[in-house]
Design a protein that fits this description.
This protein is an alpha+beta fold. The protein has a domain of 44 residues. 11% of the residues lie in helices and 24% in strands. A 4-stranded mixed β-sheet has the order 3-2-1-4. A hairpin with a 5-residue loop joins strand 2 and strand 3. The longest helix is centred in the middle third of the chain and has 11 residues. It comes from Pseudomonas linyingensis.
Length: 96
């Protein structure tokens, strides 16, 4: 491993882990709620599914801020390779 000529100054990211967000993305059979959950940055999410009771408790315990539903992309005819969700995998045929 070689050393760079100049050292790069490492600056820690400002990530406030006290801030938490939820965006409801759908509902499944039995009333289960699909949602995105983020800590510190609303763009970095995990997809989750909970019963309505568990969802309400989860939101209360995490003191989340509810985000509005995502706007559908209207600019591109084809979604990019990065524009997908794990929940979409059940309806997608992957290239082989």
């Amino acid at each position: 491993m070689t050393r760079p000529d100049q050292l790069v100054e490492m600056v820690p990211a400002t990530l406030d882990t006290r801030k938490r967000w939820v965006r409801v993305t759908g509902e499944r059979a039995g009333g289960f709620i699909e949602f995105d959950f983020a800590i510190g940055e609303p763009e970095l999410i995990v997809e989750m599914i909970l019963s309505p009771e568990a969802f309400a408790e989860f939101c209360a315990q995490n003191q989340v801020e509810l985000l509005p539903p995502r706007e559908p992309d209207s600019g591109a005819d084809e979604p990019s390779d990065w524009d997908w969700r794990l929940a979409d995998a059940t309806q997608t045929r992957f290239k082989q």
